[in-house]
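Quick one from the shared queue. A colleague (R.T.) flagged Acyl-CoA N-acyltransferases (Nat) as missing a structural entry in our internal table.

Convert sequence to structure tokens.
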Amino acid sequence: MSTSLPPREWTRPNLLISTKPELIQPQAIQAAFDSEFMYWAKPMSEDGLKRMLSNSLCFGLYNTSSPDKPQIGFARLITDQVTFAYLTDVYILPAHQSSGLGKWLVSCIQEHLESWPELRGTLLYSDDKEGPVRFYAQGMGMKPYPQGKDGLLILTRRFKGSAMSVPGE
């Protein structure tokens, strides 16, 4: 049963952010995953990438001044589109960084999330550097969750598909 929300779009001069699945450019995402600037990700099989994208709510950022409308940024939510969303794989290509596009991308994601009346919470993994913590705090109101607060713990386990080291290997 598919109960997906209708696609959304946001525009600026020569730029588009869209959740339309047909606009996503898997080859651009694969190239980003294979780059040094995305140290937290790694390339995937074509089938794995296709399944990942089809099971996520994707936000593509496109340069509309070029005829082929290249994808220059991306983010995705792993979500039921009602109560919970996990934000991951957020990037802006290095040539387009430091121009406010990352802030715009997360503000569009935040606007979309705020339209869900039964949303309970969001989650993202980030390194513990001050920059990302401040960026997501300002853009989305996120903050580190102290372990054990309110009797809650966040439990994780990494597997071999992680670009980060897997404990014990």
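The beta strands are 9-12, 15-18, 57-63, 71-79, 84-92, 121-124.
The longest helix spans residues 101-114.
Added to the table.
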